[in-house]
Amino acid sequence: MSSISQYRPYPLFILALAVILSMPVVVVLAHVFVPSGDIWQHLSSTVLPDYIRNSLLLMLGVAIGTLLIGVTAAWLTTMCQFPGRSVFEWALLLPMAMPAYIIAYTYTGMLDFAGPVQMTLREWFGWQYGEYWFPQIRSLNGAVAMLTLVLYPYVYLLSRAASVSYTHLTLPTIYSV
User: Fold this and answer.
1) pLDDT, tens digit (0-9, with 9 covering 90-100), for 132-145
2) Which CATH code fits 43-176?
């Protein structure tokens, strides 16, 4: 066989495609380190501390929320027998079937001031604007809640798989004590 017959164009095509697709990221990263006057000083003295604080709080809140909901739901559906358990086993995965931005827009539209939930509450109880308290969906806490509700199924799925695979090993040990 000659070396020409062993030549495969696919790796070169894939490499070229990867280089082309990574160019926007490379350009953005390259411009981060280019001095551009007082922009970084202005950002750090005005909004950057708030952005960093909000990002860390969002990350911490979503991590705690997804762990609490995902691990608790996995443990309950694995270890406990209750009516409807088989329905919960697959229903807890339903948020994975819809993109996160659609869930966020849907909840925001439903829970906002002009949404059906608050409009129905105002109609039923005769409330006017400012006479009742309703959690703000367009806030840090709202973002934490929405991201938690979108991301907990991933933790649930991993926790449930781990629980199911190790239950047969740990339960006999627990019951023997």
Assistant:
1) 898 888 999 999 99
2) 1.10.3720.10
